[in-house]
Design brief:
Layout: H1 2-5, H2 10-24, H3 32-39, H4 43-49, H5 53-76, H6 82-101, H7 108-113, H8 116-144, H9 152-164, H10 173-176, H11 179-195
Helix pairs in contact: 2-3, 5-6, 5-8, 6-8, 6-11, 8-9
């Protein structure tokens, strides 16, 4: 037990346990004792890293957002066409979150109700990070002539906001539905948004608008 408690990755081990227990019990029934038992440490060790259950849940959500951002950076740095990168990035930010919570035994509303105020602040930080990564691809697309986008920063925020409605923190577990349906919805939104970025063909000289 002492050996585990001194591991450098103890925070991740604790959050791994939180993920397992949220699926097994749900937030309300999960206790600090359950988490300690799952990791194989004393309960006091958890409090050295997290002040309580609320911070555990917020850190769990932060970690999911970190995975999203890391994957978005991978896609942004790829050599795929810019429109395909944008489409894949929008799908990724929705589907990673879906996959992370679809197995929860408890409704998402109940899970997040006790951390809502703090969560809203953190979500804004997460979304700002994701918009910044998306903006870099839009700017690259503008430079290459793939996109006609006068304000990539504003456009990236619109892209993020347009797909936020499909995130699990906006929908109940029932409303999330099937993964395939969600993937189709985000693809439809992405196609519509990307269409607005495509350069308009030049009009023949002398023709009125």
């Amino acid at each position: 037990m002492r050996h585990i408690a001194k591991r450098e990755d103890i925070r991740d081990l604790i959050l791994d346990a939180v993920e397992v227990l949220l699926a097994r019990y749900g937030y309300k029934k999960m206790t600090m004792e359950d988490i300690a038992r799952q990791v194989g440490i004393g309960k006091g060790t958890i409090y050295l890293h997290f002040p309580g259950k609320e911070e555990l849940i917020l850190s769990h959500i932060d970690r999911i957002a970190g995975r999203v951002a890391a994957r978005l950076r991978d896609i942004a740095g790829s050599s795929e066409p810019h429109d395909k990168r944008v489409r894949k990035m929008l799908a990724t930010r929705v589907l990673i979150r879906f996959d992370s919570v679809s197995h929860y035994s408890q409704g998402l509303g109940d899970l997040l109700s006790s951390v809502r105020t703090a969560l809203l602040v953190r979500r804004e930080s997460h979304f700002t990070t994701e918009a910044g990564i998306l903006e870099s691809v839009l700017r690259e697309g503008v430079r290459s002539g793939s996109f006609d986008c006068p304000d990539p920063a504003a456009a990236s925020r619109v892209f993020i906001q347009s797909t936020n409605s499909l995130l699990p923190f906006s929908l109940s577990a029932r409303e999330l539905g099937r993964r395939e349906d969600l993937e189709e919805q985000v693809a439809d939104i992405a196609d519509l948004l990307i269409k607005g970025l495509r350069p308009c063909p030049k009009r023949p000289a002398g023709r009125a608008r």
